[in-house]
Amino acid sequence: MTPEYVVTLISQAVWLIILIVAVLVVPGLIVGLGVAVFQAATQINEQTLSFLPRLIVTMLMVIFAGHWMIRQIMELFDYLFLNIPGMLG
């Protein structure tokens, strides 16, 4: 196994992690920004008003994108598992 191959595998895994986290976090950030603008406009400073919509959006993203996320992780695992003999020898 060459160092270039190891770096490629690690970069694929890190890229997958970034992609999955972005799918979960970006919608929450957008909703949080909208709620923050609403709070600034109305001067309502309630913490639960900020937390609850982000939580709901994140849970909805887990429900809708969960299948895709699990499939991506499984594809990477299958690739690694099936190629272990070739990597070692």
Automatic annotation (TrEMBL):
Mode of membrane association: Multi-pass membrane protein
Record flagged with keyword Amino-acid biosynthesis: no
One Pfam family of this chain: Bac_export_3
Transmembrane spans: 12-39, 51-70
InterPro entries per UniProt: Bac_export_3, FliQ
Biological process, per Gene Ontology: bacterial-type flagellum assembly; protein secretion
GO cellular component annotations of the record: bacterial-type flagellum basal body; plasma membrane
Location(s), subcellular: Cell membrane; Bacterial flagellum basal body
Domain of life the protein comes from: Bacteria
Keywords: Bacterial flagellum, Cell membrane, Cell projection, Cilium, Flagellum, Membrane, Transmembrane, Transmembrane helix
Family the UniProt entry places it in: Belongs to the FliQ/MopD/SpaQ family.
NCBIfam families tied to this protein: fliQ
Matching PANTHER family: FLAGELLAR BIOSYNTHETIC PROTEIN FLIQ
Cited function: Role in flagellar biosynthesis.
Name this protein carries in UniProt: Flagellar biosynthetic protein FliQ
Organism for this UniProt entry: Vibrio diazotrophicus
Gene this chain is encoded by: fliQ
